[in-house]
Write a structure and sequence with these properties.
With 349 residues, the chain is α+β, with helices and mostly antiparallel strands. It has one domain: Phosphatase 2c, domain 1 (4-Layer Sandwich). Helices cover 29% and strands 25% of the residues. Strand 3 and strand 4 form a beta hairpin. The longest helix has 21 residues. It is globular. The chain starts with 20 loop residues before the first strand and ends in a 9-residue tail after the last helix. InterPro entries: PPM-type-like_dom_sf (IPR036457). It comes from Streptomyces lanatus.
Length: 349
């Protein structure tokens, strides 16, 4: 019997290239939400699409971002139908996104317990279901199978305010942006370094990531804010390529002030960060308790003037000497740090 050869897939050169960015926005009553996603290599970025979900009947919402850990998960793990090969980091981020969405859907449907243990179970179950053929390709003490970070904020609106719960693993972060006091971190990176400015300078390795082949932990931190407020989650492509933590707030507020709608804000955030970041970048954000976008923008006008118009953007030039930038970073960080860390969880033992 003669077996004919399998047909060779011919690339469709007429098909448009994959986009290197996407933005989303939505408005429902006093809720305004947006998401931004960019890739350095179109079609091969290791950030999954950001998650922004809201269940109207129960007033429960979830924001989440996922950054596949390309260093420890660089091994090929999956061949797409179009012939493209994707890394374990690419796959891991998308599996984690699916697990988080499934968990949230189960919670709001009142079919599953509202616990982090249940979310951990969902993550482990879906990661364990990944094809076993990828497992043999990942070796070495620094390697991980399907590794990814996650930063999520689950929130619920009500008469008493906004209850929030930040859940994370790795170095993606969740924040609150408050009209009177600005940007506040709600998470603490899984790294041996605890100082946020030093994390920018050093970019140390992570001590904990979600993955399929080793134990991992989800950290939890929770609290309550009065409306109006803004909650967001972002991967390090958004906050990891500025000179100081304050400059990330400057980006948020400057783009907000220039925008005419929540969709315009999403696009301006994308255009502000994409040319300067050296990584994939994703962000998911919700503004709660503002009557409309004009009120949201007006609520932060005073904070914008004090932060964007202050010393946080006055980066010394090269002519000022090699240590000038470092001294400026130290000085401005000390004036900004207290507010930024106000709601941050404590340092782990």
């Amino acid at each position: 019997m003669i077996i004919p050869p399998k047909p060779t897939r011919v690339p469709d050169h007429s098909a448009p290239p994959p986009p290197d960015h996407l933005t989303w926005s939505a408005v429902h009553g006093r809720l305004q939400s947006l998401a931004v996603w960019t890739e350095r290599r179109p079609g091969h970025g290791e950030d999954a699409e950001p998650l922004a979900a809201y269940h109207r009947p129960t007033e429960n919402g979830l924001l989440a971002v996922f950054d596949g850990s390309g260093g420890s998960g660089a091994a090929p793990a999956w061949n797409a139908p179009d012939g493209a090969t994707h890394t374990g980091a690419w796959v891991g981020a998308r599996i984690a996104r699916l697990a988080a969405e499934c968990w949230f859907q189960g919670v709001v449907a009142a079919k599953e317990p509202d616990t982090i243990e249940r979310l951990t179970y969902c993550l482990r179950a879906l990661l364990a279901a990944a094809p076993t053929s990828a497992r043999s390709k990942v070796t070495g003490s620094m390697r991980r199978l399907l590794p990814t970070t996650m930063a999520a904020v689950r929130y619920r609106t009500g008469d008493e305010g906004v209850r929030w719960q930040a859940v994370w693993a790795g170095d993606s972060r969740s924040y609150a942006l408050l009209p009177g006091s600005g940007l506040h971190a709600l998470t603490r990176d899984d790294a041996h370094e605890d100082d946020t400015l030093e994390l920018l300078r050093q970019d140390p390795p992570m001590t904990n990531v979600i993955c399929a082949d080793r134990p991992f932990e989800l950290s939890v931190h929770e609290g309550e804010f009065r409306e109006p407020c803004v909650l967001l989650a972002a991967t390090d492509g958004f906050f990891g390529y500025v000179h100081t933590p304050a400059q990330f707030e400057c980006v948020l507020l400057d783009t907000l002030t220039r925008s005419e709608s929540v969709g315009d804000w999403a696009d301006r955030l994308r255009r502000a960060i994409q040319p300067v970041t050296a990584d994939d970048a994703s962000l998911s954000l919700v503004a709660l308790g503002f009557a409309d976008f004009a009120q949201l923008r007006a609520a932060f006008a005073g904070r914008h003037d004090s932060v964007v118009g202050g010393e946080y953007l006055d980066v010394p030039s090269a002519a000022d000497g090699p240590d000038a930038v470092r001294r400026w970073q130290d000085r401005t960080w000390q004036s900004y740090r207290h507010g930024y860390e106000r709601f941050m969880p404590g340092v782990r033992e």
